Amino acid sequence: MAIKAGSQFGPRLRETLSRITEEAAHLLGVEGAGLRLVDGDELVRVAAYGPEGAVMARERLRLDESLSGQVATTGRPVIVDDPDAEPGQDPVYRAMAKLHGFRSWLGVPLRDQERVIGVLVMQSRTEQRFGPTDVRLLEAFAGQATVAIENAQLYEREHERRRQLEAVREVTAWLASETDLATLLERISRLATELLGVGSIAVYLWDEASATLVPRAWHGFGDWLGDVRLKLGEGVAGTVAQRRAGVVVDDYRTAPYAQPIVLERSTASAVIGEPLLYEGELRGVITASAAIGERTFTEQDRQVLALFAVQAVIAIEHARLHEARDRALAEAEAARGRAAFLAEASAALATSLDYDATLAQVARLAVSTMADVCTVFVLTEDGEIRRGATAHRDPTQASLTEALARYWSGSVSPGSSVATAIRTRQPVLNAVISDHHREKIAQDAEHLKIMRTLGYRSSIVVPLHARGETTGALAMFVSGAGREYGPADLSLAEELAGRAALAVDNARLYREARRAIQVRDEFLSVAAHELKTPVTTLLGFAQLLLSQLKQKGALDDRIVGRALQAVERGASRMSRLVSQILDISRLEGGRLVLDRQVTDLAELVQGIADAMQTTTTRHTLVVRTSGRVSALVDPLRLEQVVTNLLDNAIKFSPQGGEITVELAQPSPDLVRLVVRDHGIGIPPERRQHIFERFYQAHDGDHASGMGLGLYISRQIVELHGGSITPECPLDGGSQFSVELPTGRPDGATESGTERAP
Amino acid sequence: MTRAARVLVVEDDDGIRDLVDLVLSSAGYEVLTASDGAAALQVIGTVHPDLVLLDMRMPVMDGWEFARRYRARPEPHAPIVVLTAARDAAQRAAEIDANGYLGKPFDMTELLAIVSHHANPT
Question: How many CB atoms are located within 10 Å of the residue A557 CB?
């Protein structure tokens, strides 16, 4: 056992040592007395009697450097009559003796059996003061004193042990009331420093997943300790964990336990460690370390630490259970909240089939529970990502969000989280949006300013899937420090997105169905309207002829001729309308079949032009072609296309003029037909729609027909594997280019059929 | 003896134009025809009609534009009766402040009745 400096003894031992010294001085009637105890290869002053500083001037003496040392080593008393004549005496003693006038010196050993535990020293100002009687008397006294000292030491040890036990009990009673694990570990660490009177404590917990000890709380080490991980057998803690038993290390720095980082960053020298075991299972390790020269640890220290560890691990387990219960409760509560929210969301989303209202509802739902701002993005048919609706928790932010949206210039940039989520079909979680990130994506200073003002802290973007397709994305943002989205938010967002996608898709289908119904209604209305004109003629002429027959009993040849002409025109117009309606029906049902034959397009076009020329006097139809142009086509269907194009050209150039049909074969396998008029042309905003069903580029004013001609023409051309392109020449009018593959007119297949897709 | 009332038929469909021409001529009206609004304004530039029978949907110049320009001309203004295949013939007539309307297809007796009602030679 290491001997502490005298002042550090317990009161009982200190008093005993002082009393022994004083009584010895009285016994021999001397002016000075002192007591030293052996500590390793040193003698430590534990009590002194006499003038202050005159006796036992040095606290520690080496055994080999003084007469006291000689007494302790030899176990024999020594008498000094003249300090100046005694070369073995300590020079400091000689100087002090001289100063205070001490002349004689007597030292006797304190023996416990054969072992010397200390030296009792007497000093006198009288010369040659000590004789054999004094020696015997003092030796006898020393025998008694040794027993008294050892008793006192035992008492002190027992007392210290009791005190520590008491402390452990107090500490653990108090620990058990702490249910927060982090706080508890911090307290355990601090209490251990107090209990063992050391500067450095580390509490490690065993991490099953990584099979390492992870420091969770410590005192006397820097933050660097937090990065240390110890496997079984590594360092003192790892050794303790492996052995599941305490370890006492006197010199950590040379022992095999030394960890480089600990050597580098701390002065730890003596270390003890105890496992934290709960029902035989390793939960962690607690270690205490003393700096170089500070102290060493005894078996008793280890026992105290072991006792403390037993109590600590119970408290840790208690806190863990508490935390697990709290977590389970919180999770149950959160799950109930999520379920309630999702049920509410489903109900809310089912309230409307209106597309825009549904988008707005989705955004509002997200804001009601998990976002400060939510924007719904919609993937359009042409692959663009558009903003559908936005909701704000704080309505005053709306203007800022709108300002922000202007930077998207209508569509979302391809690198953004929204685009990524839609492209990869995976959610994107930006747990923390840094200012650095804002600086990186800012388009200008104003943009950056808006983003900073909004201060989005964290974001989640989840794609919307419906019927196997990505239809858009839900972007949610929260602002403010410490508000970050985590995995639970992400899964809730995905659940919400699943419901939202269905609702949005339903609304979209409903909207499309309504549009289809609207188109059908319009078609019926247009068809009825178109049929009324020829019906008027037929009905009118029939009535006219009937009334004439009734009045005059005969028919006027002139009127009959005009009537028949009108009836013929009206009837063929009705017939054409009926064919178009049938064609549409065939095209939509995939039942339009081509009957391909090798056809001379030049002859076909010329024939149509000649026939149509007879219907107009205001227009001149000119066909430009260089001889025979053969292609494998359905001649009747192609005739329909050319007729339609010429019909349109005539119809939309009411002032008359030249209409040209140019037929060329730019390459052996390609035929190009260009119909050009100089009429009213197609308004630019309507050009993209002219091939749609029922679309009329000039509704209301100039139109006649159902808006089916170009739609059918395009379908026929595409069935042939060709294309039809409208052009708007700068000098007015319209031009349609039809390109067709010649389709192996010389090959084996002279004719064949193909189905519409 | 008063002269026959003069009716201007503005209609792009040849069949209907011819029909109305024949029916009204047979009933003793003087009939002028035009295939669109612009042609009708040209006719009006030389002869004042007593009644205009006006189709609405026509190429070059439609019924709406014709009515606007006709009314912008100095007096006299003949009454206008709209001929239309639209479902809401009455609304079409109201749009251009016409005096009457006749929905297509129409009966010959209806045609004669409405013309005789509105066509008064001045």
Answer: 8
User: Would you tell me how many other CB atoms lie within 10 Å of the CB of residue A734?
Assistant: 24
Helix runs in A34-131, H state only: 67-74, 91-100
- Read out DSSP for A336-367? HHHHHHHHHHHHHHTT---HHHHHHHHHHHHH
**A522 to chain B: which residues are within 8 Å by CB?**
none
Looking up tokens 């178109």, which residue turns up?
A530
- Orientation angle between helical segments B63-72 and B37-46, nearest 10 degrees: 30
Using alpha carbons, select from A27, A197, A11, A1 the residue that is nearest to residue A106.
A27
Beta bridge partners of residue A59, listed in sequence order:
none
Q: Which is more confident, A282 or A52?
A: A282
A96: three-class secondary structure by DSSP = helix
Min CA distance, B85 vs chain A (Å)?
6
Please tell me the predicted confidence (pLDDT) of residue B2: 64
- Locate the chain A residue with the closest alpha carbon to B111: A540
Contact by Cβ (8 Å): A315, A175: yes
Chain A nearest-CA distance from B9, in A, is 15
| Interval A318-365: pLDDT, tens | 888 888 888 888 878 878 888 888 888 888 777 777 888 888 888 888
pLDDT at A531: 84
Q: Could you read off the pLDDT of A691-701 as tens digits, one per residue?
A: 776 665 544 43
CA dist., res. A723 & res. A736, Å (int): 10
pLDDT for position A755: 46
The residues, ordered by sequence, that sit 6+ positions from A608 with a Cβ below 8 Å of its Cβ are: A639, A642, A643, A646
* Closest chain B C-alpha to A733 CA, distance in angstroms: 14
Q: Which of A537, A562, A565, A734 to mutate to test the interface with B (most CBs of B within 10 A)?
A: A537
Test B15 with A559 for CB contact under 8 angstroms.
Answer: no
Amino acid at A52: E
Closest Cα in chain B to A656: B60
SS (H, E, C) A283-343: EEEEEEEEECCCCCCCHHHHHHHHHHHHHHHHHHHHHHHHHHHHHHHHHHHHHHHHHHHHH
Say what the ipTM of the complex is.
0.86
Whether pLDDT at A15 is above 80: yes
pLDDT value of residue A393: 86
| pLDDT in the model for residue A516 | 81
> In 10 A of CB B115, how many CB atoms?
23
Nearest CA in chain B to A526: B86
Residue with the two structure tokens 């299972």: A281
Q: For the whole model, what pTM was predicted?
A: 0.47
Angle at A28 between CA A24 and CA A32, to 5 degrees: 65
Q: In what order do the strands lie in the sheet with A373-379?
A: A385-392, A373-379, A469-479, A456-466, A428-430
Cβ A284 vs Cβ A203: under 8 Å: yes
In eight-state DSSP terms, residue A396 is G
What is the H or E stretch that residue A277 is in? strand A268-278
The strands making up B6-10's β-sheet, listed across from edge to edge, are: B30-34, B6-10, B51-55, B80-84, B100-103
Q: Is A730 exposed, middle or buried (0-12, 13-18, 19+ CB in 10 A)?
A: exposed
End-to-end CA distance of chain B: 13
Quick one: DSSP state of residue A622? Answer: E
